[in-house]
Backbone:
């Protein structure tokens, strides 16, 4: 039987699960019928409510609201989801994995308008949810296309028209100069600082292959605190030299909009400046996605709970690269894909903002539909 271990983010109705239990396992598990309202009581989706579209088993990370006697279920779900932030704040204290208990859930007070208005509100919000789901699907599809394209172009498996010949073999230390970084912890950062500071933690928070200092604000620090750190220039590559998981080993961004500004690479980062005769601007941010490079970086990473990269080992890593004109052509294609994905993500953010506004208006009675 299908096994529910988490609550999907996009849709209001759960229509499938990633895992399944055997018949024997299902006999020893809690079975929830289709139509049950569920709430995640732990994990990344803590406090998020959905409705089951299937009969399935659920683990202890799922709370079920059964035998609801009053209220439109979809209306109830939409209202509970306005309380997610408050519920998370209530369980954020303490140590270990935060968990939402049934006592907190039972204290949620839901204002019920007349049944026909509940249905109208739920229908309006569900329509926006459906739009968000379709946008999520489009973003996922475009990301998959980009991943497949990178696999072909960054390995030489597929060559762009007009390009041929063998790729060159290089050592990282031969094509990159290693510059000085700052080593300040977060507590040294200041809102009154005059220098932008790129901390390794920022690299691990969803940044793409390029970072434009003009568009994305960075934390700041007082200049007297950074020592002799070198200023970042356009085209420099900033790489995190520490990661809590293998996926983040070698996470990098190629810098843009840094010329004329005071920007430094900070704690647990490496600042690499590429040779202009070997590396094209725009391409350096994609080197981290070359499959062979990823394998080699993970191979040289050391540590247990945190994986680190040393300069000496990184300098000796060998990579295969096309000539600069082919690098530019590859970077242009991948950058166009990144821009398209970013446009869809902005569209999703605007749609989510519209839904948040609708929830505020409709679920508080400020705006009446019926």
Residues:
């Amino acid at each position: 039987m299908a096994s529910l271990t988490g609550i999907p983010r996009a849709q209001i109705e759960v229509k499938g699960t990633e895992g399944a239990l055997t018949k024997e396992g299902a006999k020893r598990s809690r079975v929830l019928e289709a139509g049950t309202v569920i709430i995640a009581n732990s994990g990344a989706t803590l406090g998020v409510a959905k409705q089951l579209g299937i009969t399935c088993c659920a683990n202890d990370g799922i709370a079920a609201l059964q035998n609801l006697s009053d209220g439109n279920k979809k209306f109830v779900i939409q209202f509970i989801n306005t309380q997610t932030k408050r519920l998370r704040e209530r369980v954020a204290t303490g140590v270990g994995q935060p968990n939402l208990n049934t006592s907190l859930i039972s204290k949620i007070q839901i204002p019920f308008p007349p049944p026909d208005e509940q249905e109208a509100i739920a229908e309006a919000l569900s329509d926006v949810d459906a739009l968000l789901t379709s946008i999520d699907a489009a973003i996922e599809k475009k990301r998959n296309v980009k991943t497949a394209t990178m696999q072909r172009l960054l390995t030489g498996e597929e060559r762009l028209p007009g390009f041929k010949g063998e790729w060159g073999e290089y050592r990282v230390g031969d094509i990159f100069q290693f510059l000085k970084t700052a080593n300040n912890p977060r507590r040294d950062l200041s809102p009154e600082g005059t220098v932008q500071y790129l901390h390794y933690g920022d690299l691990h928070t969803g940044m793409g292959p390029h970072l434009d200092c003009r568009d994305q604000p960075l934390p700041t620090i007082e200049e007297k605190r950074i020592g002799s750190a070198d200023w970042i220039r356009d085209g420099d590559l900033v790489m995190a030299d520490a990661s809590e998981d293998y996926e983040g080993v070698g996470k990098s961004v190629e810098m843009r909009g840094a010329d004329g500004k005071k920007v430094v690479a900070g704690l647990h980062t490496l600042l690499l400046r590429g040779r202009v005769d070997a590396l094209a601007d725009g391409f350096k941010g994609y080197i981290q996605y070359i499959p062979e490079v990823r394998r080699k970086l993970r191979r040289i990473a050391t540590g247990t709970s945190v994986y680190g990269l040393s300069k000496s080992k990184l300098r000796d890593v060998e990579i295969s690269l096309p000539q600069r004109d082919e690098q530019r052509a590859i970077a242009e294609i991948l950058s166009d894909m990144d821009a398209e994905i970013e446009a869809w993500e902005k569209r999703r953010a605007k749609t989510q903002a519209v839904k948040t506004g609708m929830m505020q208006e409709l679920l508080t009675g400020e705006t009446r539909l019926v």
